[in-house]
Amino acid sequence: MAIQLRTYVLGPLQNNTYLVIDKPSGDSIIIDPAIGSHVILEDLKKNKLTLKQIWITHAHFDHIGGVESLSRAFLNPIPVAMHPTENDLWEGGGGAKELGFELNLGPLPSHPLMDGQILNFGSSHFEVFLTPGHTPGHVVFYNTNEGLAFCGDLLFRHAVGRSDFKGGNYEQLIASIKNRIFTLPDETRLLSGHGPDTTVGEERKENPFLK
Questions:
Q1: Is residue 28 assigned to a domain?
Q2: What is the domain range of residue 117?
Q3: Residue 133: which of 91, 98, 177 has the closest Cα?
Q4: What is the count of structural domains for the chain?
Q5: What DSSP string describes 25-40?
Q6: Is the pTM value of this prediction over 0.90?
């Protein structure tokens, strides 16, 4: 494998925040930095890793709450990539106000994502899938060579993401899973925003919401 993956379970909602490392160069990206993601900075320093970008699957506060603290740690701003349909949610605090607290998210992400876009990272390539349903601009990051997909809150092991939040749509959610995720090879590893990882084949057979 050209990449190394580390998972941190962080924040009040036990989010999976992913550190993806390009082994040949030591360059790294962080996917969905939750509140408390500053702990990753020590790992970066200890292992002499260079943080190149932050990628966001969607703009709910529990997936973006660590962006500001990570950005403050560097002299030059770290590029943040997100689908622009999520901008309103970001500017609204990611839904934090609905739970009774404020969250400083900083400026809007600098790198807009689009469906079908290829993100080059070290010797690896990730394709962006637009997968609405949980939120309108939710995306998945898929790496065909490594056989893995970062799914955010689109689906979980034997479950699917919620669609009852503002901007959610259950029919879109199920269509996104069936038309984008279930077209991938069965052995594809699915890395969700919460809980354990799973595979396409496992979810095709065992997920009660998708039978």
A1: yes
A2: 3-206
A3: 177
A4: 1
A5: T-EEEEES--TTTTHH
A6: yes
